[in-house]
Records
---
Amino acid sequence: MDIKAPFHKKPWVIAGPCSAESQEQLLVTAKAIQSDTDLFRAGVWKPRTRPNSFEGIGEKALEWLQVVKQETDLLVATEVANAQHVEKCLQAGIDVLWLGARTTVNPFYVQEIAEALKGVDMPIMVKNPLHPELSLWIGALERLNKLGINQLTAIHRGFFTLEKSAFRNEPKWEIPIRLKKKCPELPIICDPSHISGNRTMIQEVAQTALDLNMSGFMVETHVSPQTALSDAEQQITPKQLSNLISSLVLRETSAEDKNFNAQLKKLRKSIDEVDMKLLQVMGDRTKLVQEIGRFKKENSVTILQIERWFEILKTRQEMGVSCNLENQMVSELFELIHKHSILTQTDIMKK
Ligand code: PEP
Ligand code: MN
């Protein structure tokens, strides 16, 4: 992709309410946060899960955003979910647009939006899709990029999960890291509000995002969060936004200090050696798997004995505990090892 970073300041801060509710709410919020904010956000059309929730003010709120622009130094942004939204925003002089999580999942809408933006040179931000499918996220960015939009930014807002979780949307940090690996030039910012779903976890999520070298945040901020018409539990006050920003520690991606670099090099060398041993052990394990595969084939025995798999999972969890390893890491590791053990044996059976 041909990407031109739309901003250079770090961290880049986008703040403002989940939804535009009234002219007064927007203006009071914008004035209260302008010294802490680079870009003012407010949802005009709200994609709500159930009907009969507040679905946004619609077009009228674009005029309120124009007033925010006139009366503050802030640039303004809103979410678009179809081509009509794009047209209305372009007419209203909105500075930055974003595609929400419920839009990124739908290539038809993304394509329609990309076409409506053809020839327009403005920053567009793309939230991750609701579920952790990296290619859909990249696909949406590519659709925009193919039509000449290169001021792109990805927003990591976490992923829907059916599992019990402390988060409203699981961060699954590995997904934005994989996105960065595929598109190193693409700025990624974090939306700790939609990841947390509550006010208490925002700080910690935002700090993790910074420590993973993300470029900024989108934080839902409301003058009176308790009375907000959408996402009341996760919005913070302008004062809390200011405290959040001053609490964050901005770390460097590398250090000048010679001692630090020498020590880091030493530790990394030890890691390299451990990894080499790990791979040798994996090689030994694979040889045993092959032998077992051949042995089962000669004796006409199936590859899978489910009791053995349960036993492996259980005993490895116990072994993991005694090695101070996290349960989840051990089970994910053995799921992977077992998957490849099955594949190796399937190949042997075929020969
Ligand atoms: C929002 O930013 O208010 C919003 C609806 O977010 P998401 O698309 O991440 O759910
Ligand atoms: Mn919201």
Note: The mean pLDDT is 96.
---
Amino acid sequence: MTPARATSPSIPLPHEPVALLGGLSPARFMQRHWQKKPLLIRNALPDFVPLLSRKALFSMAADDAVESRLIEHKEPGWTLRHGPFSTRALPPLKRKGWTLLVQGVDTHLDAAHDLLQRFRFVPDARLDDLMISWASDGGGVGPHFDSYDVFLLQVSGQRRWRIGRQKDLSLAPGVPLKILSRFEAEEEHLLNPGDMLYLPPRWAHDGVAEGGDCMTYSIGFRAPQRGGLAGELLQRMADEFEDATLYADRSQPATSTPAALPPALEAFAADGLQRLLAQRQTLACALGEVMTEPKPRVWFDQPEGVWSIGALRLDRRTRMMYDDRHVFINGEGFLAGGADARLMRRLANQRCLVARDVGKASGAALALLQDWFEAGWLKLNEPG
Ligand code: SIN
Ligand code: CO
């Protein structure tokens, strides 16, 4: 049983300069760097203590509920294996050129989830996960680019990052990883523990561990692809759409080209799609449900203790967001207005509620909170 926390980490203030961003305020960072240009931050987290030891990271990689990969570079080739890995299956620590990557650590460890809260100057809908890598001397994943924004926090050991925009994005053939075949660096930085590098999408990078025992945390963001998102929303909206109107063709003349599709049928289909898309509330619901859907490997634990009206906090795995009329939690949407909506929005933003606020909730809101407690989505937050 993990000890309960009295409060959740607070949300960064937009206009307050922070060491995390090299003395920039989140507002300035978003204006100048986000999706635009890299930022190297020396001493972003000066006294940061690793959230877990190498041994603990290796045992996470042995768990089949955790997504992990092992990448090894032996001239001239690369190998990639997917976990789980028993510790004995990993190469010896002294062997050069290998790295273990563990994905979604924030869904397994409260402290990792807390670290991500420092980055909540970016909407939750964009936050993806915390990946932790451990590398032996010379280890890395090769020169590549990602489609998403990332903060690369050096936690132990040293890593040399070479970064640059690329004209030539051709990939090395016959390699199980996406490795740029003609990577050219524009900048080079050696990162020490506490240093951090922000990279916008499509900035190529190559990080090589220097001297071994190198741990890097990647705070990764996600961005939906327009076509994929539209398809998913359309499917959900179609499930809710009830329009049994039948196509009618009273003025259809006799035809001598019976295989030709009637233009009126195409117009009928287009009209149906337009009516479906005009359901703005259904669209808003579908979007909130999609964005709060838990990740595929996420399971919630049985509740600890018995439900009672008191301080609450969201489980680290819970995704909760809202719009003007709804609150969404773990893929489910609820209409909310007035004081209950304000309470739910506070819960979504702060990820916790004090007992006094919970005590003021309506019967309907309390019933929902109890359901979510029983599903393991939120926890009682008794000071430990
Ligand atoms: C790593 O931590 O080795 C890889 C991170 C990245 O390149 O995105
Ligand atoms: Co990368």
Note: The chain has three domains: 19-221, 226-279, 312-380.
